[in-house]
Design goal:
The protein is an all-alpha fold and 206 residues long. It is globular and about 55 Å long. The protein folds into 2 domains: 97 residues, Recoverin, domain 1; 91 residues, EF-hand (Recoverin, domain 1, Orthogonal Bundle), CATH 1.10.238.10. The chain contains 9 helices and 2 strands; from the N terminus they run H-H-H-H-H-H-E-H-H-E-H. The termini are far apart. The chain has a two-stranded antiparallel sheet with strand order 1-2. Helix 6 packs across helix 9.
């Protein structure tokens, strides 16, 4: 038990340094919450972390995040080693960016969410995939018809979404036919509302 307490203290100290936006007491609370979530998870990870289902349920209950595509992408950004399991380090450090991140950290986070294939660019198809979920409600297994596809294309080029973001202001500054992080960063620094241009992936401020 003494070793366990010592290990816990070392973990808290380490995470307080790495997740620099949280105080020591906040890190302690997040570790306790992590332990609660692990207890709910399947036993396949042997207590090392919790799975996608528990993660999605937690973000839904805590922050009202409901978009399946976004939740899967958020899980992937937290799960840095791609094991399908959120460890305590990934949990605390991920929340540090999600809840308290600087603009720079949040730009990198949002770009990673929208870059579905992880190639370092947001393509037109990736914009389409993200926007069709934030603009439309449709059966999960049904592809939108051509009229709906046309609507999404128009939304990309001409109009703000109902979520008060203005995708067409995100310009391809280097004219390579897709949105690089440099393009994204320049646009967001000019207009911070464009941070979530392709769908809400941060909790509401409240």
């Amino acid at each position: 038990a003494a070793m366990s307490r010592k290990g816990r203290k070392l973990l808290v100290d380490s995470l307080t340094r790495s997740a620099k936006h949280f105080t020591k007491s906040e890190v302690e609370c997040l570790i306790k919450l992590f332990d609660t979530l692990v207890a709910k998870a399947s036993s396949q990870f042997a207590g090392a972390g919790f799975d996608r289902t528990v993660f999605r349920d937690t973000l839904y209950n805590a922050f009202g995040m409901t978009d399946d595509v976004v939740l899967d992408r958020v899980f992937s950004t937290f799960d840095r080693d791609n094991t399908g399991c959120i460890t305590v380090e990934e949990w605390v450090e991920g929340l540090a960016v999600l809840l308290r991140g600087t603009l720079e950290e949040k730009m990198k986070y949002c770009f990673a969410i929208y870059d579905l294939n992880g190639d370092g660019y947001i393509s037109k198809e990736e914009m389409f995939q993200m926007l069709k979920h934030s603009l439309l409600i449709q059966p999960a297994d049904e592809e939108p018809d051509e009229g709906v596809k046309d609507l999404v294309e128009i939304a990309l080029k001409k109009m703000a979404s109902t979520y008060l973001f203005v995708p067409f202001l995100l310009q391809d500054y280097d004219h390579d036919g897709k949105l690089s992080f440099t393009d994204f960063e320049k646009a967001v620094r000019d207009e911070n509302l464009l941070l979530e241009a392709f769908g809400p992936c941060l909790p509401d401020i409240k």
